[in-house]
Amino acid sequence: MAVGDFVNKVLARKGYTIHQFCDPERAVEFVGTHRGAIDMVLTDVVLPGMSGPTLAGRVRDVRPDAKVLFMSGYTEGAITHQALLDPGMAFLQKPFSAAALTGRIRALLDAR
To answer: Is 25 helix (H, G, I), strand (E, B) or coil?
Structure first.
């Protein structure tokens, strides 16, 4: 099962509304035009055509209160060492379990 399919399945079972995009430009466009709430963006650190941090920055330009959770198959140390993410940014290393995913999302959504 692909990561996106796994994430969608797990989060839908928990009652979350999910909008999935394979193209980061389409995600940014959606965020800018969607009338409803966008509480969180879950993105890979490395994306085709745009980095996850760039996507997050563009989302926050429009939705400054949106939480962002980055995921990657690279370790957090490698990500920070390569300066792909700033230290302290919310990160979930792949592979992850359903419990790890939902726990991390719940913690971020509940944080002030």
So the answer is: helix
Count of other CB atoms within 10 angstroms of residue 58: 19
- Write out the chain's pLDDT in tens, 112 residues: 588 899 999 999 999 999 999 899 999 999 999 999 999 999 998 888 998 999 999 999 999 999 999 998 866 665 654 656 666 788 999 999 999 999 999 999 998 7
Rounded CA gap, 112 and 86, in Å?
19
* Fold classified for 3-110: Rossmann fold (3.40.50)
Quote the CA–CA distance of 81 and 51 in Å, as a whole number.
16
Q: For residue 68, what is the DSSP state?
A: E
Q: How many CB atoms lie within 10 A of CB 109?
A: 12
Q: How far is CA 40 from CA 13, 84, 107, in A?
A: 17, 20, 12
The SS3 call for residue 3 is: helix
